[in-house]
Write a structure and sequence with these properties.
By secondary structure, the chain is α+β, with helices and mostly antiparallel strands. The protein folds into 2 domains: 99 residues, Nucleic acid-binding proteins (OB fold (Dihydrolipoamide Acetyltransferase, E2P), Beta Barrel); 299 residues, Bira Bifunctional Protein, Domain 2 (BirA Bifunctional Protein, domain 2, 2-Layer Sandwich). 31% of the residues lie in helices and 26% in strands. The strands form 3 sheets. Strands 6-10-11-16-15-14-13-12 form an 8-stranded mixed sheet, with helices on both faces. A 5-stranded antiparallel sheet has the order 3-2-1-4-5. A 3-stranded antiparallel sheet has the order 7-9-8, with no helix packed on it. The mean pLDDT is 93.
RNA sequence: GCCCCGGUGGUGUAGCGGCUAUCAUGCGGGCCUGUCGAGCCCGCGACCCGGGUUCAAAUCCCGGCCGGGGCGCCA
């Protein structure tokens, strides 16, 4: 006895009006079995939703016994008739003719899928596959997929080429402090903390505009709700810009499009999560670092960077003053930015580097980059790096490099803030942090 | 790297020196022909590890491991 799974229909494809009394194949996970005397109801879950299988003992004693005996989350296939029904909440139910158990789930489950008890994040992450069976958890990753898709669509449309650069590297963009070491045959290599060098090199290689969607690695032993040791970086780099404002404007536009796409494609998931996405203003406000210091009430030069509390206060200010939950802060002090950052020659000590703050968190770092060979080499030297180690990177600057700039969006940070998640680990299928390496 | 807090059945918890360690969920069994947070009855199942204090430790102390949060740093 077998069931032809090529005939399988999904829960969402069953229209009780049109399909009443027709035979269908359905398959999925048995979320729950409710035995009510000589009748039982099995709730079957597939990727789209749920279907109720109704079995009467006197009509199908074998299927009744089978479904009564299996544990929750077992995988079954059912050949049965669609029966339109007013009593069933879904408007229909399946009365089975045949039922195959493909996989018997063990009991008890390490975490409940539909239990009404709270489960700690740590426990959920240890049993992530079961955790992701919950609609609200899967919704996060459906939305993440759209977020990335939106990034790709928006950039491709604007003449950007997707590139895939190596994650195994010889030298970090800013030295080796937060790099993971890997054994590379007889040498030491590192995991890339950013595709920064390579995407700039690709601008100079003639693509002019490139983007990359890829994992990056930070060996920081931090333990917070907003840090991961491996995260998805949405990177882009564009040539022939006037200044960093061109990059900020681009980000503004693509953010609008990314959020539009999610609103279009993930209505159900947003509803499941009870989330309404924020409005991205046509013009996200931009303030200079010096202005930020004034708003926060610091004296000039008192601080060279913003701490998490400052960032929270600044986005609160932006919400009040400009009705925007997004805020660009431009012109960070040069010494706090990486050595490839273009200095602001009109304001000595400051750079053309910016951050995008969203709901109290840094979600993007970007800026105009140095494109002049001598200036770049000097900048690295002044920071104490040995320019000889970066020759592979400097080469493109020696042989014709357009003025350019770019940015990197932390995908999980953006997603976390968009969906009001409490912990960035929730935005990663299998997060890597200080202790977690499995699953 | 630093600071604060925590670890009790599969899961989430109560208990915070002394009664058979609480409750929910789950799991097993029973009853029920319309359940959909099903209901009712019976049962099963736990004090992170090591050392110490004490007549007595889940409870107090020390160390370890693990977890949660914050800072630094960053996306």
């Amino acid at each position: 006895m077998s069931i032809d799974l090529t005939r399988r229909v999904l829960s969402s494809q069953i229209d009780p009006e049109k399909m009443h009394d027709t035979e269908v194949v359905v398959a999925g996970w048995v979320e729950d079995v409710r035995v009510v005397g000589k009748i039982l109801f099995a709730i079957l879950r597939d990727r789209e939703g749920r279907i109720q299988i109704t079995v009467k003992k006197n009509e199908s004693p074998k299927i009744y016994e089978t479904l009564k005996s299996i544990h929750r989350e077992s995988v079954i296939g059912v050949l049965g008739k669609v029966v339109k029904s007013d009593i069933a909440r879904m408007g229909f139910e399946i009365v089975p003719k045949e039922c195959v158990v493909y996989s018997y789930a063990h009991a008890p489950l390490p975490i409940g899928i539909i239990d009404k008890v709270h489960v700690e994040l740590d426990t959920r992450l240890r049993h992530r596959v079961l955790d992701i069976r919950k609609d609200n958890v899967r919704a996060i990753f459906k939305i993440k997929a759209t977020l990335v898709e939106g990034f790709r669509q928006s950039l491709r449309k604007r003449g950007f080429t997707e590139v895939h650069t190596s994650k195994i590297i010889a030298e970090g963009t800013e030295g080796g402090a937060n790099l993971f070491e890997v054994k590379y045959f007889e040498r030491v290599a590192y995991l890339a903390q950013s595709p920064q060098f390579y995407k700039q090199m690709m601008v100079g290689a003639g693509f002019e505009r490139v983007y990359e969607v890829g994992m990056v690695y930070r060996a920081e032993p931090h333990n917070t709700t907003r840090h991961l040791n491996e995260y998805l970086s949405l990177d882009l780099e564009m040539g022939f810009i006037n200044d960093e404002y061109d990059v900020m404007r681009l980000e503004n536009e693509i953010l609008i499009e990314m959020i539009d796409l999610i609103n279009d494609e993930n209505k159900r998931e947003l509803k499941t999560l009870g989330v309404e996405l924020p409005e991205v203003p046509e013009r996200i406000p931009v303030i200079h670092f010096v202005e930020a210091m004034e708003i926060l009430g610091y004296n000039e030069g008192e601080k060279l960077d913003l701490d998490p509390e400052d960032e929270k206060r600044l986005t609160e200010w932006s919400k009040e003053e400009h009705d925007s939950e997004f805020l660009f802060v431009d012109g960070y002090p040069l010494e706090k930015r990486p050595p490839y950052t273009m200095p602001d020659f009109e304001r000595p000590g400051y750079s053309r580097g910016f951050d995008l703050l969203f709901r109290g968190m840094e979600v993007t770092t970007g800026g105009q980059r140095i494109h002049q060979y001598d200036l770049l080499v000097e900048s690295y030297r002044r920071r104490g790096y040995d320019p000889r180690k970066f020759e592979f990177y400097f080469e493109v600057f020696k042989y014709g490099m357009p003025p350019h700039g770019g940015l990197a969006i932390g995908a999980e940070r953006l997603l976390m803030k968009l969906l009001n998640l409490n912990n960035i680990r929730e935005a990663m299928i299998f997060p890597r942090d200080r202790e977690r390496l499995v699953p």
